[in-house]
Amino acid sequence: MSASVLDKKQQKILEEIPSIHDFSKFYFYLSESKMDHEFLVILNQLTGQTDTVLSDWLNISAKTLRNYKCKTDLNLKENTKEHILSLIALYKHGMEVFENSENFENWLKAKNLLLGGKAPIGFLDTISGIKWVDNRLTAMEYGENV
Q1: Residues 103-108: contacts with CB within 8 Å, 24+ apart?
Q2: Rounded to an integer, what distance in angstroms lies between the CA atom of residue 60 and that of residue 52?
Q3: What is the pLDDT of residues 97-138, one digit of tens each?
Q4: What confidence score (pLDDT) does residue 146 get?
Q5: Cα angle: 119, vertex 47, 55; to 5 degrees
Q6: Residue 2 in this model has a pLDDT that exceeds 80
Q7: pLDDT tens digit string along 40-62?
Q8: CA dihedral in degrees (79, 71, 90, 125; nearest 10)?
Q9: Dihedral over alpha carbons 103, 106, 110, 116 (to 10 degrees)
Q10: Mean of the pLDDT values across residues 23-47?
């Protein structure tokens, strides 16, 4: 998937989401925003992942995720919302580093010796894992092999 699948409103929301490493901006954006359903839609469209994969990342059941998708007045728990926003910020950064979503997705799915032989996608079920993968993207921007 790519950011081009988003409508104009969703594109604007994506642009506003701060980097997960700008802790204060990220925190205040998380606590002040009330667009939980839109965030979930954006995550779904950016990643193109199945409900099973997304629910595993978010540590919720696939049934719960499907229920969330149906509620336009969705009000998520802060930790779930933080996880969704962190994943969106990661995808946003990854698409910038790799210049498109396809290259980023390929990198996410490829086993990597510098990551202990694991694929980066295996780290996305925790906030610290997302931040670690995002750090690897930043390292790549500065010329490190990752």
Answers
A1: 105/48, 108/133
A2: 9
A3: 999 889 999 999 999 988 889 999 999 999 999 999 999 999
A4: 66
A5: 80
A6: no
A7: 999 999 999 999 999 999 999 99
A8: 50
A9: 50
A10: 95
Residue 112 pairs with which residues in a beta bridge? Answer: 118
**Neighbour tally for 141: CB within 10 Å:** 11
**Nearest Cα residue to 10 out of 50, 40, 54, 55:** 40
pLDDT at 114: 82
Indicate the residue type of 96: E
Q: Which amino acid would we find at residue 3?
A: A
Q: Which tokens hold the place of 80?
A: 């779930």
- The residue whose two tokens read 């921007």 is 141
C-alpha to C-alpha distance for 110 and 136, rounded to whole angstroms? 14
Chain centroid to Cα 136, Å, comes to 15
> Could you tell me if 84 and 43 are in contact, meaning their C-beta atoms sit under 8 angstroms apart?
yes
Q: CA-CA distance, 23 to 19, in Å (whole number)?
A: 8
Mapping DSSP to helix (H, G, I), strand (E, B) and coil, where does residue 118 land? Answer: strand
